[in-house]
Amino acid sequence: MSPSSERRTITGFSNSTVKYLRSLREKKHRKREGKFLAEGLRLLTDARECGHVPEILVMSDTRDPHPLLAELEAAVAAAGGAIIETSPDILTKITGKSNPQAVAGMFAEFDTSLTQLARSAAPIWLVAQELRDPGNLGTMLRTCDAVGAGGLILIDDCADPFSVEAVRASMGAVFTQAIAQARWDEFVPWLRGGEGQLVAASLRDAVPYRGAPYQAPCFILVGNESQGLPEDYEAECDLRVTMPMKGRADSLNAAVAGAVLAYEVLDSLSQQT
Amino acid sequence: MSPSSERRTITGFSNSTVKYLRSLREKKHRKREGKFLAEGLRLLTDARECGHVPEILVMSDTRDPHPLLAELEAAVAAAGGAIIETSPDILTKITGKSNPQAVAGMFAEFDTSLTQLARSAAPIWLVAQELRDPGNLGTMLRTCDAVGAGGLILIDDCADPFSVEAVRASMGAVFTQAIAQARWDEFVPWLRGGEGQLVAASLRDAVPYRGAPYQAPCFILVGNESQGLPEDYEAECDLRVTMPMKGRADSLNAAVAGAVLAYEVLDSLSQQT
């Protein structure tokens, strides 16, 4: 399907565009089409301001007028995209959310190769290995944005960053942050081909995370939610740091661990300059 | 239903105990019965070691033998609880998880009144206002455990800490941490009736979160996922702190914000002693 600049109203659940958009909630359809969905005026505005205009804009016929929505419509029209008006029920059907936002958009997926990353453009990068929860993935993107990171690198078999859940949890950071996907044996040669310190939260042979000798660009590696990092991945790290664990548990939620570490690195690097 | 010390095998989906246990996935049934479900040998072992023995223990007939499981069985039998053996399919039906753990347990809900909290027993407490996501709630309990907090205080209309999702995300901390539920107008008089510093992450009239004058017991207040804290709640705080936001977003995920702040408070208090 190739969107062309048009404006129309859809009233039927069985409409082919509705079916097409809805199919993008499933990974196999996203991958085949190279498209994904995002919802909400704020998120779509973040996208537009970062240069991502939806190819299809879907608006609820019960929406309130808003200057940002008018700007969004104008941008879609200027880019030759499609603008669709429909009912909240059909929006619910598309996004799977029972209280749908007034707008949703279909975007082209981005290049997620390592080679598009400008490693020296940011002091911090998050790296997640086999991160399986799309909510954790989106939360890590949101943290990347907050600490001024360059982006999130997804190692081995992670959740899909373009899933509706990940995009939602990212609160728009899916559009502001670079995202790369790679196998570990692709990532390590890429990393070692330039500057960059690889840091992991670890219990093995680690120094306290506070005051550790962080260096920019600092790549913060977080492991799988239930298994943590493989031992040889930890061994590859330039620095292994440990966070206090005062209770019975020996680990934090993956997105939490990444954020606590990222804020420490941010503070450490800011004191160096 | 009153569990008595017994051991039996259940093979049918329509068994009344299966239906009863399954009903506890719904909040209204949990509240009526005062019971909740938890899964996994590690989590149930944490519970046992913290003095919480399930009233009903459900074990998969495909489980592997394990010394911790034997200890758990013995504890349930000694406490007069019921031990049930069943198929993985029926365990899936009970817990709603497609790859079920080999064991699950039914526990009595705890006292969640403010009056059971020993505020001076711990240097840090987390306080969440209208936290709606059970995953965030469980993650905050897990963070409480990690920083050696006393527990989590849930203000106004929060997700249920005894939901399957919250218990799962807590990784057992639901059993190690005190949990209280209160309205804001109950919480403030309770807080002001003793020692305690109320701290919020805020953009209004705030000082940098690093190096702020934290005092134990420090109550860290985190607001609702989409609305943040009401202005008058922030005004009640003894200290308002702000975290760097380098990107487009003006907030972090609620569980992430609580954790970054809790680790800073932990570090600050440890330097004071």
Describe what this molecule looks like in 3D:
The structure is a homodimer of 273-residue chains. Chain A has 273 residues and is an alpha/beta fold. The first copy, chain A, is built from 11 helices and 12 strands. In chain A, strands 8-7-6-11-9-12-10 form a 7-stranded parallel sheet, with helices on both faces. Chain A has a 5-stranded mixed sheet with strand order 1-4-3-5-2. In chain A, helix 1 packs parallel to helix 5, helix 3 packs across helix 4 and helix 6 packs parallel to helix 11. The longest helix of chain A is centred in the last third of the chain and has 19 residues. The termini of chain A are far apart. The relative contact order of chain A is 0.13. The mean pLDDT of chain A is 93.
List keywords for this structure.
homodimer, 273 residues, alpha/beta, Alpha/beta knot, 7-stranded parallel sheet, 5-stranded mixed sheet, 11 helices, 21% strand, rRNA_Methyltransferase (chains A, B), RNA binding (chains A, B), RNA methyltransferase, TrmH family (chains A, B), RNA methyltransferase activity (chains A, B)
Give the proportion of residues in helices of chain A: 25-40%
Order of strands side by side in the largest beta sheet of chain A? Answer: 8-7-6-11-9-12-10
**Sheet of most strands of chain A:** 7 strands, parallel
Counting DSSP E segments of at least 2 residues, the number of strands of chain A comes to 12
